[in-house]
Amino acid sequence: IYKNNIDNISTGMDLVNSTALVRNNTIYTDPNSSAAVIAGIRIAAFTNAYVPVIDSNYILDHFYGIFIEPGSSPVIKNNVISKKGGYGILSGIAGNVKILNNKIIATLGYDGIYKNGSIVQATSNFVTGPFIHYGILLGPNDTLKNSIVTGATNGIGVWDDQGVLIQYNNVWNNEINYS
Questions:
Q1: Has this prediction a pTM greater than 0.85?
Q2: 140-174: pLDDT as tens digits
């Protein structure tokens, strides 16, 4: 899925049981949408064997930039997500999720990268708020390296530190840098 302009829609792309390469698209979600899910890209699958690649897209959204629902093990890299509320990347109960070299810029948001149930490897991301909750929130068995987090209430947070590896990050100008 290559070089599309998607404008004023509730969900820009809805990938279900897909191993698609989504590259160089521009997605703008409708700020007035009342849909249940408002997302630039929504990813879901019945098993974690599906590995879609989301690469080099520009997403201007009003709730979820990229929303990973149950299933799949996506690679999300080199994207620019501009936020006006909600989450930059929300990873639900999925497989192994790689979040690499993305820029998440918010005029206001809840969380830049939010993990809930998947195993996340986040490397070389730039996340800047203001974010009401976390720049990046991690959990068990996650890895966060070489990322920049600034302008959040809590820069980097961990809800369960079992097996978590956090190294070489630049975290500053948050109310609390690590929590």
A1: yes
A2: 999 999 999 999 999 999 999 999 999 999 999 99
